[in-house]
Amino acid sequence: MRAHSFAAALIPLVAATSWGQVPPNIDPKEIKEKVKQGVADVLASSEEKTVSLEGIVKITYKEMPTNPKKIAEILQQSGKLGQLPPNTDIDQYIGMFQNDITEMLNENLANLGTIEALVPLKLRSKRIPVGTWNFGFAFDGERPIALVITGEGLPKDGKPIPIELKTRSVDLQDVLSLEIVEPKKQKEGKEKFDIRVAFMRTVAQSKAKLERTSAD
């Protein structure tokens, strides 16, 4: 399973830039640092959301923007890029530093939030003990293919647990959203649920349900 960035799709106008070189009076190294810090600040300031299944699980994550234009607008309006030359095309400008944006997004997407297991859970043959664990995305291009749970206290010497996702294409989403989907009927003591994610142009849902299990 490979962890890839969705940021390759972040700036669709990169290939269309007509500059061919850095605009005059711009220090590329300085702007790269501003872009990296700006993206980090945008993600860090994203609103924290929590979804839960009472008594079973609680998931906390950042409702980060995933619309490329929205990210560019936030960077511009916040002044993170400093003073730009007159008539600068912001999309093309950000596109010049795509690799730096990619790096920052990868770092944040690898650790999106926490999953708190309030009871022992299992995913097929894998067990998730009671506790609070980190999670992030694994990607194929911009398509999320797994939520990966990590933590030193996981079974098998802390081996990461991937929750594989089935996906379908949708219109571009402004922000990342996550929800817990449970069956219409639950059996007490054997509760189960799916995790559903809306991200960029994809809605994804866990291929297998997570289930409550015994502590043994």
Would you summarize the structure shown here?
The protein has 216 residues and is of the alpha+beta class. The protein is 23% helix and 33% strand.
Largest sheet report = 12 strands, antiparallel
Termini gap: 29 Å
- Assembly context of the chains: single chain
**Cα-atom radius of gyration:** 20 Å
What portion of residues is helical? 10-25%
Beta content comes to: 25-35%
Please provide a written account of the structure:
The protein is α+β, with helices and mostly antiparallel strands. The protein has one domain. It has 5 helices and 12 strands. The longest helix is centred in the first third of the chain and has 17 residues, at 28-44.
Main attributes of the structure:
alpha+beta, twelve-stranded antiparallel beta sheet, 216 residues, 5 helices
Topology:
Blueprint: H1 28-44, E1 48-53, E2 57-62, H2 68-77, H3 90-95, H4 98-109, E3 113-117, E4 121-123, E5 126-128, E6 131-140, E7 143-150, H5 155-158, E8 161-169, E9 177-181, E10 192-199, E11 202-206, E12 210-212
Antiparallel strand pairs: 1-2, 2-3, 3-6, 4-5, 4-12, 6-7, 7-8, 8-11, 9-10, 10-11, 10-12
Helix pairs in contact: 1-4
